[in-house]
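Support request from a user on the community tier.

User writes: "When I paste my structure tokens into the form, the page sometimes reloads and wipes my input. The last time it worked, I copied everything first. Here is what I submitted, just in case something in the input itself triggers the reload:"
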């Protein structure tokens, strides 16, 4: 849009295709995440950013240089970067004397800041410190949230929603047992520490039809604590959660399903007059002379 407020139409086919891709789609592609560093970062923050970037690839983009961004004071530069690179999520690493080893994770809606949470890295063990197999590129992770605290605090509810949206990939309707190869576990301790663990799912022989499941930690291992939060406004969140009309299931009339999963249908039939139904003229259906005489006598 230009300064005068008029809409500038694309002059090339490539520009038209680019604008069409940025328009809302009925079925969205996997959301990309932007990884970037703030004014100053520590070695621990850089390694943590790199490990989470490896878990998010290929739907991720990482900036190598530092950026003069203070997202809680002015989110405009971050919104500009996300719009230019078509990223719906971001993870910003920073380090200062007041807030050391800091990670800020958040979401965008219509290339404007929706909500975000600031996390402090309490302890960290890198992905390279674990010996063994690593994550497969583009794998769909199973997310586990342990602890009743996730439902007791509004900040943790928002953080859980951000984590689910951040690590979500393609929408699937069914999955086979062997397709669950990796899981991410998020646990909250009574002290309020958020523990992130990454496991490889191993299916062992059990002598039964269901295999025995074992978890092997493959890293990274990060413990967080909550700092600042910025929730979305109710109106903006309602608009962001709006579904396309094509995806809303419409209820079919006169069709219902019982508790056993059986579908029942109701058919409306008009009034039937059996005496006026035309039948085949067979000898066995003809009236006899006595029946005709009795009918004339009644009339």
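"...and here is what came back when it finally went through:"
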């Amino acid at each position: 849009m230009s300064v005068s407020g008029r809409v500038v139409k694309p002059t090339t086919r490539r520009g038209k295709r680019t604008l069409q891709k940025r328009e809302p789609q009925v079925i969205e592609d996997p959301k990309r995440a932007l990884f970037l560093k703030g004014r100053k970062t520590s070695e621990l923050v850089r390694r943590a950013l790199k490990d989470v970037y490896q878990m998010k690839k290929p739907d991720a983009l990482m900036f190598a240089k530092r950026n003069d961004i203070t997202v809680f004071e002015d989110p405009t530069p971050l919104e500009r970067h996300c719009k230019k690179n078509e990223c719906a999520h971001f993870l910003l690493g920073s380090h200062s004397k007041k807030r050391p080893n800091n990670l800020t994770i958040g979401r965008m809606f219509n290339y404007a800041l929706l909500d975000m949470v600031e996390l402090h890295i309490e302890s960290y063990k890198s992905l390279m410190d674990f010996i063994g197999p690593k994550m497969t590129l583009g794998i769909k992770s199973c997310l586990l949230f342990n602890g009743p605290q996730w439902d007791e605090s509004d900040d943790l509810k928002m953080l859980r929603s951000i984590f689910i949206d951040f690590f979500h990939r393609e929408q699937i309707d069914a999955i086979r047992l062997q397709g669950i190869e990796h899981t991410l576990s998020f646990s909250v301790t009574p002290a309020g520490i958020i523990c992130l663990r990454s496991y490889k799912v191993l299916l062992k022989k059990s002598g039964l039809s269901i295999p025995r499941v074992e978890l092997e930690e493959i890293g990274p291992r990060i413990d967080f604590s909550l700092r600042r939060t910025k929730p979305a406004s109710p109106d903006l969140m309602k608009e962001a959660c709006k579904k396309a009309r094509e995806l809303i299931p419409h209820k079919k009339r006169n069709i219902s399903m019982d508790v056993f999963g059986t579908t029942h249908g109701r058919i409306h039939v008009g009034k039937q007059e059996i005496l006026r139904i035309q039948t085949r003229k067979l000898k066995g259906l003809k009236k006899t002379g006595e029946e005709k005489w009795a009918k004339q006598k009644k009339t």
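Agent notes: The reload is a front-end session timeout and is unrelated to the input. The chain is about 20% helix and 30% strand. The longest helix spans residues 43-56. Escalated to web team.
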